[in-house]
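Provenance

Sequences were taken from public entries as deposited. Structures were produced by running a predictor on each sequence independently, with no templates supplied. The record for NAD(P)-binding domain-containing protein from Weissella kandleri is shown for reference.
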Amino acid sequence: MTTYGITSITGRFGQFALNELLKNIPADHIVGFARDIQKGQKIVPDGVTVRLGDFTQPEALAQSFQGIDRLLFISSIPGQQVSRGQQHQNVVQAARQAQVEHIVYTSFPHADTATTPLAADHFATEQAITAAGISHSFLRNNWYLENELAFIKAGGAQEPLLDATDHAHVGWALEQEYAIGAAKVLQMEQPKTIYEFSGPANTFADLAQAMPYQPQVQPVTLTQMRQILTDKGLSSAAIEAKMMVQTLIHDRQLAQTANDLTEVLGHPLTPLTEAVQQILKK
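Predicted structure for NAD(P)-binding domain-containing protein:
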């Protein structure tokens, strides 16, 4: 029987994917990978094996991946001591050495044509997987609605919400929906090579209307937003994080949407209003 692997098993995406996989696959045919094995063992159900999954240790990864037929490779977070690009190269090298048959990789929307620097590591990873000769499915995930938690919570303050995106669209969907989609693709006998996963196209004004208090949205330019955030005394790191997302959306990097996710799930996505309510309850 096929053995399935999921990297970053202690993260939210990994947990969502694991829970979905367990609906159809026996626990003893699933392996989770974590940097902290003990932490992983505490949170996975009985029967699921946990192995070392440190992306900075390619030789150990190659050993951990032994016996894995189909691997869900969840992309790592940028800005760590070892670059994300190098970490991903290590994973691909280890998967090739372990003769993993198929990789499902969580990538970036239209990674092959996107102009944002955020897409560079993802496209390089896609190229590395292809060059390694490993059968693959690239899940080009749009944007998690949870990424806008600060914006959504600010809507309850009854103050206008700043929006420097120039009415650009985003394909928001819940992280759980992306993860369930990933688990379903992992189980397919003949999956597609590329999936453009997203929710329907919505703007920040649409998002505000989906909030309980329906706050006003104040359109500003990117320059104005940076100045406003500076005047509020936010740290440089906080300002850059907010500006990165606003610029990403302003530049239409998340504007193209598709039906791939709903087709894989087999049902419509959670409506935006309901999705916002779910996030606020967490």
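The CA atoms of residues 10 and 39 lie 7 Å apart.
The chain has a mean pLDDT of 96.
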